[in-house]
Specification:
The complex is a heterodimer. Chain A has a two-stranded antiparallel ribbon with strand order 1-2. Chain A starts with 18 loop residues before the first strand and ends with a helix. Chain A is mostly helical. The model of chain A has no long low-confidence stretch (mean pLDDT about 90). Chain A is about 70% helix and about 0% strand. By secondary structure, chain B is an all-alpha fold. Chain B has a domain of about 60 residues. The longest helix of chain B is centred in the middle third of the chain and has 132 residues. Classes of the chains: A mainly alpha, B mainly alpha. Chains A and B meet through strand 2, helix 1, helix 2, helix 3 and helix 4 of A and helix 1, helix 3 and helix 4 of B.
């Protein structure tokens, strides 16, 4: 049971169940870690910007780097009129990054390992793209699905592909993050479980456990990379998709 | 990630109780029996119980029963994060970066203006130097011209005086010469008359001698 790799994804009520319109909206371990994520981000950025020094200290440097990275990304991908979306992209990146990183602590719950969370964020992004696109370009925005310069004979086919590719965006955006976090944590847990199981078998087992232990260490490093990379990918894809809403020509 | 057996066992039993409670007392009892029975049995029962606890033996991330709660809290916390970021954290960081940029820009601008000032000062110094040099040349030339003029005037005056003196001297010389020549003619005439007399030529008139001398 100590080796059950699925247990870590279990949702548990922490305060007893609340109901809203017949839906169970209890405060769970998932909600607790969402709150922890928001708290960590806010507290860190508060610390980083507290002294507001001209020559930044270490914490302030990290805060500025964090800000600068997303600011550059938004500027490079969306151009000048993407400024309005900067707080959103920053929030998405920070939320995913810190939620992933908190998930790397043993016994901590990984908010982003649940498909409902990642899919909701992805659907929100794509819905925003549609809303902003129609708001900015009216119905002309739907030209996105009708590329110019394509022969009329294959235009319906191309449009169909464009529509399918657009509709698959929220799925790929949400599932990529979900799948990475889920699989990473399961694999890590499985290897860690091997270490414990083999270690219980005596001296031979302890020697045999060295390989999975090394693997677990390596995987931990890899998972830290994945935690950052997935947050980065989520943020940059959000920018790329929002770019379709702002500038229809592509 | 690895959890202590004691902790998971306790959780397992809690989960199991919640699962089996609606199904009836007898299966719950059996489940307890199995859990007490052995580790291997416990593990399989535990996995089933975990799944069963949230509907139809599904994998927790796909358990739709937990979706409303996660969605509800995600909306609340993400909205809170967005507001905290857009109203509080990001403006503060933007202010820090903006201040630094403004400071660097103003420093650069000040450096540029100081450089411009220096260049202007150097230019005005060079201009003053050139002016002074030009003025000095002018003064020198004027002085030289005035001196030259004075020298010319003096030398002219001197020349005039000299040439007057020379002319006077020349006329005096000419007069003396003429007088001397007259005297020479007289002497010659006298000498001629005496020579003629001595030679026995008798008396010769002065007029005849003069005529002969001119002849």
């Amino acid at each position: 049971m100590a080796n059950d790799p699925i247990h870590q994804f279990q949702i548990q009520d922490l305060t007893g169940s609340f109901n809203l319109g017949g839906y169970d909206i209890s405060f769970t371990n998932s909600a607790l870690f969402m709150g922890a994520t928001v708290t960590v981000i806010t507290a860190f950025l508060w610390l980083a910007s507290r002294k507001a020094e001209l020559v930044p200290g270490r914490v302030q440097s990290v805060g500025e780097l964090w800000y600068g990275m997303i600011d550059n990304m938004v500027n490079n991908v969306l151009g000048h009129d993407g400024k309005k979306f900067f707080p959103l992209v920053f929030s998405l990146f920070s939320f995913v990054l810190v939620a992933n990183m908190l998930g790397m602590f043993p016994y901590f719950f990984t908010v982003t390992s649940h498909v409902i969370v990642t899919a909701s964020l992805a659907l929100f992004v794509v819905a925003l793209v549609v809303v902003v696109g129609i708001y900015k370009h009216g119905l002309g925005w739907f030209k996105l699905f009708v590329p110019s310069g394509v022969p009329l004979a294959i235009l319906p086919f191309i449009s169909l592909i464009e529509i399918i590719s657009f509709l698959s965006r929220p799925i790929s955006l949400g599932l990529r993050l979900f799948g990475n976090m889920l699989a990473g944590h399961i694999v890590l847990k499985v290897f860690a479980g091997f270490v414990v199981s083999l270690g219980a078998l005596g001296i031979g087992g302890i020697l045999g456990a060295i390989a999975p232990l090394a693997m677990a260490v390596a995987l931990t490093a890899l998972e830290f990379l994945v935690a950052f990379l997935q947050a980065f990918v989520f943020a940059i894809l959000t920018c790329v998709y929002l770019n379709d809403a702002l500038h229809t020509h592509h | 990630m690895s959890q202590s057996t004691a902790a998971t066992t306790a959780e397992f039993q809690v989960a199991e109780e919640t699962t089996t409670a609606p199904e009836g007392a007898a299966p719950a009892g059996e489940a307890h029996g199995e859990a007490a029975g052995g580790e291997a049995h416990g593990t399989t029962a535990g996995t089933e119980a975990h799944g069963g606890g949230h509907g139809g033996g599904v994998f927790p991330p796909l358990d739709t029963k937990t979706f409303p709660s996660q969605l509800f809290w995600l909306v609340i916390f993400f909205a809170a994060l967005y507001l905290l970021m857009s109203r509080f954290a990001l403006p503060r960081l933007a202010a820090i970066l903006g201040n630094r940029k403004a400071r660097i820009d103003s420093d650069l601008a000040r450096a540029q203006s100081l450089k411009d000032e220096t260049e202007a000062a150097v230019k005005s110094y060079e201009k003053a130097l050139a002016d002074a040099r030009g003025k000095a040349t002018d003064i020198a030339r004027e002085t030289r011209d005035a001196v030259n003029k004075d020298v010319d005037a003096e030398s002219h005056k001197l020349d005039e005086a000299l040439s007057k003196k020379i002319a006077a001297a020349e006329s005096k010389i000419a007069a003396s010469k003429a007088k001397a020549l007259e005297a020479v003619e007289d002497i010659a005439a006298d000498s001629a008359a005496e020579i003629v007399a001595a030679l026995g030529g008798g008396k010769v008139t002065k007029a005849a001698i003069a005529k002969a001398l001119k002849g």
